[in-house]
């Protein structure tokens, strides 16, 4: 990456940070508590996220005269991407654009009889004016140990994947997470039966029995018999004062991308204390005739005052599956995906990705983020692709 281009990127980032202030209605008290040293900036951000999820809402009278509480929330992420690529030493076309990464509007209804329902819509689909379901489910909380839902939402697989994008320290999730969620359509959102609960002594669990086809929510994907296999996912976690450990596992029949049954697991550890946030995730999967895949991601950040530098390294390796570079590095130039120049098929690949960024928390509801990522992909046939570039984002929660 040339120095003058890198300088332009950070000038643009500074312009975004110096944009007119965006008002936040729920964060004045949190800011005051931070100023007085009662809360850290990180704790204030977490509380703001909880407010987004559990605000009091408005009371109405529902059918059958049941009390109904409605909670509205939203999330906007306006983003700039500039990514360049090379394929076997030859430069590819670059991506360079502003766009809305996410525009979420959500509402949750709670009935007096304990039943609740939640809908979250995403208005920032890649094909405008596409509106996508981010989450649509209803459920009942029997007690702290058993909360069950029927509907369409994320299954318990991958720490970063199941963490809200509003609380991530990096602009995009790691290449290892994106392989399972976006490249082979294994994790992420599925329709079916979901449940989670607390087991005591710091332990918790989550389970899902769902459609095997990712994204099959309101309509069948194709014919009624075309994708009727089920998938199962499970999670066990332990959380203490600073540490959290977890193991997730999933089994999916007839994966729509791989064309084979996929069995995968991930183990992770997260340490959070006094502004320090450390995360390590390890992934492994058996993909039938496509053989195995392994990967991991390591992330570290440190909050001081309103600033937070962050660094992450991610790695993914396949035995024979042809990974998609522009899926693992979101919106990378599409030409960097054409790695089978030798004519070989079923060759393995490996990707190394390095991210360096910084975040500025203007308030618990408003965050500015900037980051630079470098990724290198190699195949067993000695083809090579490189992607490097800059991203910047402004996020507002309400």
TrEMBL record:
Pfam families to which the protein is assigned, alphabetical: Porin_O_P
Superkingdom of this protein's organism: Bacteria
Signal sequence coordinates: 1-23
4Fe-4S keyword on record: no
Alphabetical UniProt keywords: Signal
Name under which the protein is recorded: Porin
Source species of the chain: Thalassobacterium sedimentorum
